[in-house]
Each structure stands twice: as structure tokens, then as C-alpha cells.
Design brief:
By secondary structure, this protein is α/β, with parallel strands linked by helices. Helix content is 35%, strand content 18%. The strands form two sheets. Strands 3-2-1-4-5-8-9 form a seven-stranded parallel β-sheet, sandwiched between helices. It has a two-stranded antiparallel ribbon with strand order 6-7.
């Protein structure tokens, strides 16, 4: 692998992941499926695609069959597990190392919305959301490091490569809820400061206000997930392993609101359809919701050598919505 530095670098200048072994959580979600395809397109040797233990084989066959044709040298391993459980995480790492001898990339893409109001949030709801959104990344950080530090000889599987040196990338796919909180309030009549002929004054105005389509439970858990990444920089110092966070905004995951559970316990990323097209045009710089593949491409970037000097970063992928927030939130 060519490198411009004197010391060995595992990263290719073309951004490919040849030889890399990856773990991906929540792989059957629209976002997880896009990430799975992105890692395969980068040439990953093996991807352990984590799914709930109750997942039928037919669901995963539908996902992996096209990838088997387009990327035959990438081995995709369906792995039923609960990634927010310590024993399950350790068992997953043992199986990865026994089969491949190495671990290079861990993508935490799991997430639960939780209840939309604090009145509907109890200790049990908070526990479920916190485990999915913050505990799973914590376990990846705590136990993934030792696995990524291991060296190995070239394995006997397609795209296999030797690993000499400690390196890896932990990627937490969270939400812009890690930076601010609230719930969406479209077209509310609010009292705001406006500038008129006599200077600044207060007036009633109908604004399209978007402060997030989630409740306090989700906001708390995503702040905690970002805290895992920030604290992880010091934890991983000297190991050559990087950890970064992605903050997607409104992403069109193909969710039909007629079947959307407002309690959020069975939902993953906030669906873009919670915001009307009018609200998206008013509040998002690019005037549309994002696509799962647009988030997946950022995951591929953080997994590859293109981001070799990035750790502890929070990459916002929201079409400019957060930058426009001062224009839409009342003073």
C-alpha cells in the first residue's frame, strides 16, 4: 500500500478498504442497508451485519443477494445479536477475531426515537433508548480497541490482507439531536422581534419553526452518544484508532407516517416525512430531505484513509438545516 510517509500506513490513497473487516449494527434499516452497500463498494473483505436475533432469514437474503452479485469478494455475515449487551458484544468480537484475525471498522448505526413528550417518558423508555443510542457505542469503544490493535497474517478468504500495526475506525451514526433539542412545531404563531420603521419591536408572526422532531429522551441519549466519541479520543490515544460521530438531519428513510409509532420505541431515525415539503424548503438550505446513501458516503469517508487525520469530529449531514436555525428560531 503506497504511502507518502516514512512510517507504515494501513490506508490506501484511493480510499479503498481492501482487507478490512467491519462490524455494522442495525444493518436491515434503510440507513444500515445503505452503509452496508457503501462498505462493500469500498472493497471491505468482510462485514458482520448485526441484526436482531428474531430476524427471519428471508429478510436478510433480500438485502445481501444484490451485494453478492455486485461485490462478490466482500463476505457479508448476518449476525444475530443485541449490540447493547456486554456479553453479546464480547461474543461478536470473539467470533470476528476467530474467523478473520482482525477488526478494522465498527459502525454503530442503531437508534431509537423514544417517546415524543416527557409525560410519556418513564425510566423504562429512557433505558431502552439510552441503551440503543449510547450504550452500544460505549461497548464498541471499550472492547473494540483491543480487537483493532491485533495484528494478523493474511487470511484465506477473498480480499484478505495481513495487518501489521494498530489502527481502526469507530463511527457512531447519531443525529443532530446531539447538538440541540426540541420537537418540531410547524407554522406556529409566535411572538418574535422584528425590525420595522421605528426599529426593533415585538410582533406576532407565523413562522415555520423546526427544532427537531424528537422528544427529550432521544435528545439526552444522542448527547450521551456524542460524549462517547469525545471521551473516546483520549481513551484511544496512542492506539492509532479513530472515533467520529455523524449527525444526520432529516433523512428520507421511506417511512409512511400512517404506520409510524409516535411512542418511537420501534422506530429508528426520525423520518423526513415528519416535516412537510413546505417546512423542508423553508428550513433546509438544500430545500429537501437527505437520502440514506448520502449519510452512508460519509461513513465510507470516515472508514477510509481519506479521513486519516480526523478523530473526535462531529460531521453534520443535514443539508444546511442547522446553519439556518438562527433564521427560523424566534428570538
Amino acid at each position: 500500500m503506497a504511502d507518502t510517509h516514512d512510517s507504515f500506513s494501513p490506508y490506501r490513497t484511493d480510499g479503498k478498504l481492501y482487507g478490512f473487516v467491519c462490524v455494522l449494527t442495525n444493518s436491515l434499516s434503510p440507513l444500515g442497508s445503505a452503509i452496508l452497500s457503501e462498505l462493500a463498494s469500498h472493497g471491505a473483505a468482510c462485514i458482520y451485519a448485526c441484526v436482531p436475533p428474531s430476524t427471519p432469514d428471508s429478510s436478510f437474503d433480500t438485502l445481501t443477494a444484490p451485494l453478492a452479485k455486485s461485490h462478490p469478494n466482500t463476505r457479508i455475515v448476518p449476525y444475530p445479536t443485541f449490540t447493547a449487551r456486554e456479553d453479546d458484544t464480547l461474543a461478536l468480537i470473539d467470533d470476528v477475531l476467530n474467523a478473520c484475525g482482525r477488526l478494522d471498522v465498527w459502525v454503530c448505526a442503531s437508534g431509537l426515537l423514544g417517546p415524543m413528550s416527557i409525560e410519556n417518558t418513564g425510566p423504562e423508555e429512557l433505558r431502552k433508548v439510552w441503551e440503543a443510542n449510547a450504550l452500544a457505542p460505549f461497548l464498541a469503544l471499550k472492547y473494540g480497541r483491543r480487537a483493532m490493535e491485533k495484528e494478523c497474517e493474511q487470511g484465506r478468504y477473498p480480499n484478505a490482507a495481513e495487518k501489521r500495526g494498530s489502527y481502526g475506525s469507530i463511527i457512531v451514526v447519531g443525529s443532530t439531536a446531539a447538538s440541540y433539542g426540541g420537537r418540531s412545531r410547524p407554522e406556529e404563531s409566535l411572538r418574535v422581534r422584528v425590525f420595522g420603521r421605528l426599529g426593533w419591536d415585538c410582533a406576532q408572526r407565523k413562522l415555520m419553526v423546526s427544532t427537531g422532531c424528537w422528544g427529550p429522551c432521544y435528545t439526552m441519549s444522542q448527547h450521551a452518544a456524542l460524549g462517547v466519541v469525545k471521551s473516546g479520543v483520549a481513551v484511544l490515544k496512542g492506539s492509532g484508532i479513530r472515533i467520529n460521530y455523524i449527525s444526520p438531519g432529516q433523512i428520507d428513510v421511506g417511512v409512511d407516517l400512517s404506520g409510524f409509532n409516535m411512542q418511537g420505541i420501534s422506530a429508528s431515525i426520525p423520518p423526513a416525512k415528519l416535516q412537510s415539503p413546505e417546512a423542508q424548503k423553508a428550513n433546509i438550505g438544500l430545500e429537501r430531505a437527505g437520502l440514506p446513501v448520502e449519510v452512508a458516503r460519509v461513513v465510507g469517508f470516515l472508514a477510509s484513509g481519506f479521513s486519516s487525520y480526523m478523530t473526535g469530529a462531529n460531521l453534520t449531514v443535514d443539508g444546511g438545516a442547522q446553519a439556518m436555525c438562527p433564521l427560523t428560531v424566534p428570538i
